[in-house]
């Protein structure tokens, strides 16, 4: 789920320091731990950034060492598990080079800004991981940041020549067995005895994090025609996912399938409130005067000619009040485009103004404002115009808001994906992890562990890293325990879990 955020978000006092993990001390009595009916001698993990150990907006060594598959492999060693190799980055900066030029940004750390508030900042420095320097051999961790479900079966997804155009993935290009290899092919070729498969998050995530800027491709069975922010058709997902499970179980291997969480439960969507802009009475009155013509003339006129309904006109109404919090205005591409009508009689508006008013509405409590909006919401981009405030007199653009209708598309797709995943787990007698339910517990009250409470609160909750999307080491340890529990339940194994409190959260220094 590669997602590079560009923001500076102030947070309250933070006292979290990253630390190296300490695994549980094993009980040394021979035979205490058991692999049950499974064989962990050759474990391969397949997935996207969540499998790779991506965190803080980048892939870096410490994050990879704290990936849930690596944590699990350490625990598998108690029941006959073998070596577990990963395509490690060259440093802890996390950026990527291609032929010496940087193509991916460095990771976030928590630092104090000029205003004295802590917030995420990118590490300075030139990364040393160059995509064109291919790694040799095979790797047990086949997590590829940015991969969607259909990417795992796409030949050439690891072709270095395709990286500049976006036809290939830079992370897979580092360790693909050949320029025409597929991720699932390279994974299956290792003849694993046990596997985990967690894929599909990115099939909806990029649509959500872009504020619904992509297209819901439900009904389009040709993934080669999809844009990077589009929602994958559920039938396409079902076909490629089934193909992947068949490939991984062809030799009789056992494994675990993990479903797709509700992406709108992550801090990326829950940190910035919808009613985020305080206004005094004078400012509210001034704003309402500016939008009076829009509310009292434009909208009734559109209703009068039958272009929009009275209900839609009410949705588009712009009103401010004196309060600590006000809903900002925004543009919403989901609304009917009425630009052409507004340029003609009886409105006769200039093209630029007509285009703006055609998409204008106010945020409501059902919308979600994405985390990067915190860097622009309430700001004044033009120093010569202090009245031009983004979200107030200047609309917040659609990329920063995930509307309720857009959330419904995400939910519909993920529900269909999850039905496929659970059905295949049952049909193949594989272990199944309900990550959706697990994330819901983290987001709603939190998870009690041996050292405290794990929640989805940005920075202070401990579960999510500074990109607001990917887990911290502690969050990955929690994920590993969920999967280990499913393995123990399904295969009658007794693999020990880890103490998640031994794992760090956000990093406040450059380790």
TrEMBL record:
InterPro entries: SGNH_hydro_sf
Descriptive protein name: G-D-S-L family lipolytic protein
Top-level taxon of origin: Bacteria
Organism: Aequorivita iocasae
Gene3D superfamilies hit by this protein: SGNH hydrolase
Matching SUPFAM superfamilies: SGNH hydrolase
């Amino acid at each position: 789920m590669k997602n590079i955020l560009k923001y500076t978000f102030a947070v309250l006092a933070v006292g979290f320091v990253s630390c190296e993990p300490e695994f549980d001390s094993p009980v040394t009595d021979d035979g205490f731990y058991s692999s049950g009916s499974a064989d962990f001698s050759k474990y391969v993990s397949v997935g996207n950034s969540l499998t790779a150990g991506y965190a803080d907006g980048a892939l870096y060594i410490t994050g990879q060492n704290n990936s849930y598959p690596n944590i699990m492999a350490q625990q598998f060693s108690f029941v006959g598990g073998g070596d577990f190799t990963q395509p490690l980055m060259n440093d802890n900066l996390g950026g990527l080079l291609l032929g010496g030029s940087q193509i991916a940004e460095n990771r976030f750390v928590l630092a104090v800004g000029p205003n004295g508030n802590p917030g995420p900042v990118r590490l300075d420095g030139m990364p040393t991981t160059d995509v064109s320097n291919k790694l040799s051999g095979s790797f047990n961790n086949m997590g590829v940041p940015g991969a969607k479900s259909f990417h795992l079966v796409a030949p050439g997804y690891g072709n270095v020549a395709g990286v500049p155009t976006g036809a290939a993935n830079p992370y897979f290009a580092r360790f693909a067995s050949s320029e025409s290899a597929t991720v699932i092919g390279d994974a299956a070729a290792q003849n694993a005895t046990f596997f985990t498969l967690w894929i599909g998050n990115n099939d909806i995530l990029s649509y959500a994090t872009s504020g619904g800027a992509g297209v819901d491709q439900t009904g389009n069975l040709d993934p080669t025609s999809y844009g990077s922010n589009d929602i994958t058709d559920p039938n396409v997902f079902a076909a490629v996912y089934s193909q992947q499970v068949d490939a991984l179980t062809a030799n009789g291997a056992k494994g675990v399938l993990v479903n797709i969480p509700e992406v709108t439960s992550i801090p990326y969507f829950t940190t910035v409130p919808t009613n985020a802009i305080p206004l005094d009475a004078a400012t509210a009155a001034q704003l309402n005067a500016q939008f009076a013509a829009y509310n009292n003339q434009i909208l009734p006129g559109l209703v009068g000619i039958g272009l929009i309904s009275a209900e839609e006109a009410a949705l588009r109404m712009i009103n401010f009040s004196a309060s600590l919090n006000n809903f900002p205005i925004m543009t919403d591409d989901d609304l009917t485009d009425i630009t052409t009508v507004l340029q003609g009689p009886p409105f006769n508006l200039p093209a630029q103004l007509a285009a703006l008013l055609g998409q204008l509405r106010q945020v409501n409590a059902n919308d979600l404002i994405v985390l990067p909006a915190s860097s622009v919401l309430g700001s004044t981009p033009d120093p010569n115009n202090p009245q031009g405030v983004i979200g107030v007199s200047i609309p917040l653009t659609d990329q920063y808001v995930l509307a309720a209708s857009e959330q419904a598309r995400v939910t519909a797709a993920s529900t269909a994906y999850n039905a496929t995943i659970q059905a295949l787990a049952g049909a193949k007698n594989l272990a199944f992890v309900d990550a959706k339910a697990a994330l819901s517990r983290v987001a709603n009250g939190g998870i009690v562990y041996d050292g405290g409470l794990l929640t989805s609160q940005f920075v202070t909750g401990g579960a999510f890293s500074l990109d607001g999307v990917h887990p911290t080491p502690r969050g990955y340890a929690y994920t590993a325990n969920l999967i280990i529990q499913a393995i123990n339940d399904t295969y009658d194994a007794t693999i020990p879990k880890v103490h998640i409190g031994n794992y760090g959260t956000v990093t406040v220094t450059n380790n």
